[in-house]
Design brief:
alpha/beta, Rossmann fold, 2 domains, 6-stranded parallel beta sheet, 14 helices
């Protein structure tokens, strides 16, 4: 016999909510150091107001210590300040779980951003079956990759316990959902995902200042870590230059590097550059300066070495920002937010400067509005939240 969980209802404006969802995140560093994180929470907060008429009451909360002296100007998400005497991470996480427990009594479902090496998680998750963790990375593998093998071992142990005692976790990709739940959970739970999304407005596409005499592409990162794959792209460019494969009749290619670039990366970029192929290092840019780069660009570059984090899938925020601005995307990973038929997300087997060059030239044929409009069904935050809410309210079918 099949049965579904009955959702509690509550008031949402003048309507009756089919489902009440709370999303809780905790921050361990100043909000200004996490612009992508800040943008995601603000977009979620804004989108929640548009779900009211569809019977979804979605509340977003941020927990942050008092030492984070950000002004939070333009940030509307409710911030729960943790007292300064509790700012060591162990106590901060206990405070977070106490807040989650209070929300669990008022909500049908509570989503909690996974905290790495959190010893409190198994205890609380085992006692609150309407709480689901959201996983953004393969946390144990990431700890190992950055040189913390002992913490990686502890994280693996905590994850193993969570998989046995907690409600199934949810990843931002299907690969991460499987990582959070393990392969033995029902297929319906393994299909769940909460990918990144952005708010859509009428003036989103950047102005089109592309120069038809050259090809400019944007590669944006907060800092160019190994998994972004800048080194792989440079290696391909070096091989391309050294073997004299550059066709001088072709439009010149300019790769704009936006974000922190190490001295070694900067020096390598300088050595590669030729009249027909240039890597330009800009460092961190203000929003208006970044928009100027995007306005001149025909393409955006996503991660090119995600395998170094032990991952095959991603749904990065910068891909959504590129598409929102009207730029097609070049990557070497699968993005579970798009179907294979989505032509504005091009996936290569490896970082290849010649393939990037060809794709950049092809992308001159696409208008900004054409790219943005095709992407909206897959990147709009409101739509992503609505889909997840519907899947959560239906619940897995029990035989």
């Amino acid at each position: 016999m099949k049965k579904r969980r009955e959702a509690r209802t509550g008031p949402v404006g003048d309507t009756l909510a089919r489902v009440n969802i709370a999303h809780v995140s905790m921050l361990n560093k100043p909000l200004g150091e996490s612009p992508g994180f800040k943008a995601q929470l603000q977009d979620e907060y804004d989108a929640a107001t548009l779900l009211v008429d569809q019977g979804v009451a979605w509340r977003t909360f941020l927990l942050a210590p008092e030492e984070n002296d950000e002004t939070y100007e333009g940030f509307d998400v409710p911030v729960i300040r943790l007292p300064s005497r509790r700012t060591n991470r162990l106590m901060m996480r206990l405070c977070m779980w106490q807040f989650v427990r209070a929300q669990a009594k008022e909500s049908d479902i509570v989503l909690v951003r996974h905290q790495v090496v959190d010893p409190w998680a198994p205890y609380f998750l085992a006692r609150m079956k309407n709480v689901r963790e959201i996983h953004h990375t393969k946390s144990a593998e990431e700890l190992a990759a950055v040189g913390h093998p002992l913490l990686a071992l502890i994280e693996r142990a905590i994850l193993a316990v969570n998989r046995r005692v907690a409600a199934p976790g949810i990843g931002v990709t299907h690969e991460l959902t499987l990582y959070a739940t393990g392969p033995w959970v029902p297929e319906s739970n393994r299909r769940l995902a909460y990918p990144n999304g952005v708010s859509i407005g009428p003036s989103d596409p950047v102005s089109d200042k592309r120069d038809m005499k050259s090809l400019e592409v944007a590669f944006v990162a907060s800092s160019f870590e190994r998994w972004h794959g800048l080194e792989r792209l440079m290696a391909s460019a070096e091989h391309f230059v050294s073997t004299e494969q550059i066709d001088i009749r072709r439009k010149p290619l300019i790769v704009h590097l936006v974000g922190y670039v190490s001295d070694e990366q900067r020096e390598r970029a300088t050595h590669i550059s030729t009249p027909n192929l240039q890597f330009v290092c800009h460092g961190k840019l203000a929003k208006k300066e970044l928009e100027e780069i995007l306005a001149k660009s025909t393409l955006g570059i996503s991660s090119l070495a995600l395998d170094l984090q032990g991952m095959r899938e991603a749904c990065t925020l910068k891909v959504r920002e590129y598409l929102k601005a009207g730029l097609p995307v070049y990557a070497t990973h699968h993005d579970s937010g798009f179907p294979d038929s989505f032509v504005y997300f091009s996936r290569s087997r490896e970082a290849d400067i010649e393939e990037l060059w060809t794709l950049a030239e092809k992308s001159l044929n696409y208008s900004r509005d054409q790219v943005r409009d095709a992407a909206i069904p897959f990147i709009e935050k409101r739509n992503i939240m609505r889909v997840l809410a519907n899947e959560l309210i239906e619940g897995p079918v029990e035989e």
